């Protein structure tokens, strides 16, 4: 299914870095860069997913609830199918709680499981009873100074639900929101390095970087690559299980690294070993891997569509573009350690060249900055299809990785 306007799925995590939900963000044609609420379209998208009518929906296979911005008027008209109640959290503006409190609809639907989230919450005249009609309060961290967070939460300490901070841009801001008493967190910080305190690379990170560097060394022979993988039994097991999963569609079981090289080719093998090595970094949310896979696939599909760059290089570029987030070290300082091509290095360091333009456009799409995308000649429907298929592929890979 092609969505009418660009859609971006953003993860919401808890204090333990586990995903607790997703928000589906979208834009319209008249107000580029502004998030809008396409009530009917959104609900149809979610309904199709949960009734099995559309296996390619961008929330396919996900068990966590979807947070969706829905207008209060739409809710009051009672147009939300009951089948969606357990899977949907309705994000509404604070002033709609007054209307809901006088509606016979709200009591019935909350009892049946409809969940409300007060979006863009600010201290106002809303009393505690009204606020507690919601199960979630969402606070925009972008509009708060660090010294404003704790006082704000103190004033709503009677709230019985969960507090979500959104638009968190850095790990330092994330730690502040978490220490202040926030429960859930959302923002671009998930895909960034935590470099608020520069420290030497950990032993685990150094080992990972050494293995990745050896993998991409053009002087490495096939035997050397096999030996690199074979020295790590866990890596070997994970790689073979991944290749034999439904995501690869192999007809005959792959039983050795040599067979894996013949099946995938050297370049693809390097990428998948790289992926598994990164997934083993500790203290990182699995959502980082999901974001990374989606970006890598998106870069590859965009390169294929535009026919301006090598798709395999674009995939590797997308995969390595979040290396800093796994290692917690500036990307520009990691790149010299990697024997990769100069055009990939330039794209990763400065977003220059054809590959750099692709990476920049993908990043802008991820941030819902549609008007900042370079390739404006591509129809919105094409962008939607590329992003949806990238998400679905990433979800399938994540499902395989989590089952092993």
Structure explained in plain terms:
By secondary structure, the chain is α/β, with parallel strands linked by helices. It folds into two domains: 7-191, EAL domain (TIM Barrel, Alpha-Beta Barrel), CATH 3.20.20; 203-402, Hypothetical protein af1432 (Orthogonal Bundle), CATH 1.10.3210. The chain contains 19 helices and eight strands. Helix 7 links the parallel strand 7 (162-166) and strand 8 (184-185). The two termini are 30 Å apart. The relative contact order is 0.11. The model is unreliable at 28-37 and 51-61 (pLDDT under 50).
- CATH homology group of the largest domain: Hypothetical protein af1432
Q: Radius of gyration in whole Å, from Cα?
A: 23 Å
Helix proportion range: 40-55%
Main β-sheet description: 8 strands, mixed, barrel
Average pLDDT rating: 80
The tally of strands reads: 8
Shape: elongated
Any idea of the CATH topology of the largest domain?
A: Hypothetical protein af1432
Low-confidence stretches: 28-37, 51-61
- Output the structural class: alpha/beta
SSE order, one letter for each helix or strand? EEHEHEHHEHEHEHEHHHHHHHHHHHH
Tell me the number of structural domains.
2
Distance between the termini: 30 Å
Strand order of the largest sheet: 1-2-3-4-5-6-7-8
Total helices: the number is: 19
| Fraction in beta strands | 5-15%
Q: What is the CATH domain class of the largest domain? A: Mainly Alpha
Judging by the overall fold, what is the CATH architecture of the largest domain? Orthogonal Bundle
